[in-house]
Amino acid sequence: MRALYVIQRYYPFSGGSERYFQRIAERLVGEGGDADVLTTEAWDLERFWDPRKRRVDEPESVHNGVAIHRLALRYLPAPQLSHRAIRRLMAESCRVSFPGQRALLRAGGRFGPWVPGLVSAAGRLARPTLVHSANVAFESMVSAAEQIARNAGAPHVVSPFLHLGEGAGSRVWRYYTMPHQVDLLCRADAVVVLTTIERDALAGFGVRADRLHVVGAGIDVSASTGGDAAAARRRIGVDGPIVLALGAAAYDKGTMHLVQAAAALRRSGAQVTVVVAGPIMSEFDRFLASREPADRSVVRSLGFVSEEERRDLLAAADLLALPSRTESFGLVFLEAWANGKPVIGARAGAIPAVVDDGEDGVLVGFGDVSALSEAIRLLVEDPSLRNRLGERGRTKVVDEGTWYARVRDVYRQVLGGDPTPNAVGTDEANVTT
User: Fold this and answer.
1) What is the mean pLDDT of the chain?
2) Distance CA 236, CA 45 (A)
3) Predicted local distance difference test score (pLDDT) of residue 417
4) What's the CATH number for 222-394?
5) Residue 274 and residue 299: Cα distance in Å, rounded?
6) Which residues pair with 320 in a beta bridge?
7) pLDDT digit string (tens) for 208-222?
């Protein structure tokens, strides 16, 4: 089989959806298949609307047998016509229905992001037998993948990585469920989702049940464990309790609220430190700059870290916190649990389908700083509770091989083969198996 993967970013960038697709592509190659990746030059997320942000300068490369093809982003000439501004206008226009709405949304969606060379670039590659695209919030790329698949006579599989925010009608919900985005998913040959929450939402929008497949997520446990806790603490200079935030530092990820919660604990005498490891968004930099020095002192902002440093931090942390409203799963929960660490998440998006409140972690309302502060205090002050929740979480961790087998089953189905007996699309494929 030759698969073509179309995703907004890819290795060497390492985010949740990017790591997810990297592991699929590399496992496919490992079992004798071929894989090409069509992606953009973006390194920073902000590169999609700001050409001053970082990019990957290597247009063509091969990593672990996967051929990577990066395309340049284009930009409209005025800031008020930036990718971000257009997205906001489109999402807000979906508060009401009006004649010609879908046509206008499709026109605006061409710039989300603007990568005009995708279809022609695919034409220069070997003909794929399957096209798998990602992230419905980057629907210009999903739409291009659909065209590429039809040109090749190949099935089109989509992983929408749907973010549902605080529920129907919320701002995040509107950004991911615009009518033209839903239309793309309704036309796909298969829609691969990570949780039953994502599945049920899409079924409610009219995506056919027989095309929705819940595959969950898995990790390479050996690559996520065995870190040196003492080495991590020496590097960052922290002796006391560590609350680890792995991933982008941004408002929607709850990073600002995490800092505010830790600062409140510090003021009450608890020596808690938030360690942020991942891409730092400009909004987070501005937020920290606006805080008092005492509040800034609760944070160690590391930016991107190596895989070794990531393992060390997971070993050193007392708990992991991802109080986010923009998650379709949260792979970092599995990484924390594999290390026997409890987690804190938000009651938003798909997180309630992954974290069982009071069983393997604690859930709080998105943006509820007081509840977040109390959850941190509770876990920091009670080692037995931390151990119990962390060990319960460890039993839920799905190995990468089991998860990949579910993805491969979807491929077999859309290619006309029979799936293996471990069927997909059931509640059991959510997190635990």
Assistant:
1) 93
2) 26
3) 78
4) 3.40.50.2000
5) 5
6) 244, 343
7) 999 999 999 999 999
Instruction: Strand 34-40: give its sheet, edge to edge.
Output: 60-63, 66-71, 34-40, 2-6, 130-134, 156-159, 190-193, 212-214
> Residue 86 has which token pair?
């257009």
Q: Please state, in angstroms and rounded to a whole number, the distance separating the CA atoms of residues 192 and 157.
A: 7
- The domain ranges of the chain are 2-218+400-429, 222-394
Res 56 pLDDT > 60: yes
Whether 429 has a pLDDT exceeding 50, the answer reads: no
Superfamily of domain 2-218+400-429: Glycogen Phosphorylase B; (3.40.50.2000)
- Equal fold, 2-218+400-429 vs 222-394: yes
Would you give the end-to-end CA distance of the chain in angstroms? Answer: 27
Please check whether residue 5 is in contact with residue 20, taking contact to mean a CB–CB distance below 8 angstroms: no
- pLDDT tens for 23-44 read 999 999 999 999 999 999 999 9
DSSP codes, 73-94: ----SSGGGSHHHHHHHHHHHT
Q: Is residue 129 helix, strand or coil?
A: coil
pLDDT at 80: 58
In whole angstroms, what is the distance from residue 153 CA to residue 272 CA?
56
